[in-house]
Amino acid sequence: LQQNRMENVLAFTAPRQGCQYRANYNALEYTHGNVHIFVGGDMYDPYTSGNDPLFYLHHSFVDYIWEMYRQQKQTRYQRENDYSPDNQACSSALHFGSTLMRPFIPLRNIDGLSNAYTDNLYEYAPRPTCRNGPKCGSKYLFCDRSHGQPHCVSQARIGGRCSGFVRGEQVCHDGICIGGRCVATRSSSVSLQILPVTPPLISVPAKQTSVVSINADCYNENECCQYWAQRGECDRNKGYMHEWCKVSCRVCQPNFNPNIECSNHHENCERWARSGECLRNTKWMRENCRQSCRHCNRTRAQICSGGRHDVKATHRPQPEKTSLLHCNSPGCYNENVCCPLWGLQGQCTRNFTWVACNCKVSCGLCIPVDYDYGTCNDYHRSCPDWAARGECSINAWMLENCRRSCRSCLDQWQLRQRCRINSDLSFSHTPNFVPTMIDDFYYDIL
């Protein structure tokens, strides 16, 4: 709680050679691990620690410490946007902020910092203290005044040890301390009648021939799903498309005709439209409640292709040419130095078509194997030559991928200043970061 920098809290615990961050053994992840080691048994092994009920109490307390840090040290905006830098020399690329959160696809790691959890689902009560009285305000705790600074601890169960307390503490839960052991009082002794339990009979249904059934919960989540599917994205970006575009990728069979341009796919569309969902839940409503949202003036193909498809066209849509970069450059690279921050702000989901081309690494669409992303090195062997030709000052790709040659290794604060990141990020305002040609092999600019 004394830390003021995010990378000292969400610290790198397995840095490799080349990582500029040293291992901090006082970091929350390390100290949390010490408890696993102390308890031992199933708690010792990460693969079995969830078998111990203590695991959930322990992790709730760790999360409470994390929440105290968020409340005391961060603004509301910082709580769901500040994330440790993406650096393969310091951690696996699977831990990058904008990488898909496996197995909870299509969520991304940064989504775990959302304010929505504590806004809508849960909150932490203040930590109990001895100021709340001799039982710390709980029937399961007591204030230990016999061992150093007074602090709240759990009461001992019947049969548990209670020796060593000399200040009159009520150590035993529903009992008293006699001879160093907790003994039940008469009022707390309850006789229980144990009834035999007869397991229920389980009927096994006869084997039936499997049939493909219509799924009433089968929808696309974006009006561009069909357009993306026609361009082969169901195969190229299976992880994303099979979660967000289930109808177009034929993951399930809907109970409506997805080819009708102006229709409602759900019986509640009219009611949702009247309550304002067309504005609050734009992406889903524009795909599934087009009629109720009065969104039928243009076809999906027109909207998703930038208006280059005629309404009456019957041929399969072709990929449109844009004034930005094509996705033809070989290798696994971000095309812009701002990609990590765009990813943290949710652009990997909200502007998938654009970032799938321009921010492949930050959005988890590929993992570099011939360089360590996030380090202050050059990611391509030709970087020194390109830098000598002056590309660092005119080409966005260079600042991201030729960090040593361009001397463009920025920390998080510098990067935010450079990219002018704030809560109103717009792709239409990215001065000084317009891609230009390095050579024909890596770029195809119109």
UniProtKB/TrEMBL annotation:
Keywords: Disulfide bond, Metal-binding. Transmembrane segments: none annotated. Residues 218-252, 262-296, 332-366, 376-409 form the ShKT domain. Disulfide bonds join 218-252, 262-296, 332-366. GO terms for molecular function: metal ion binding; oxidoreductase activity. InterPro entries: Di-copper_centre_dom_sf, ShKT_dom, Tyrosinase/Hemocyanin, Tyrosinase_Cu-bd. The keyword Disulfide bond applies. It holds the Pfam family ShK. This is Tyrosinase-like protein tyr-1. It comes from Brugia timori. The lineage of its organism: Eukaryota, Metazoa, Ecdysozoa, Nematoda, Chromadorea.
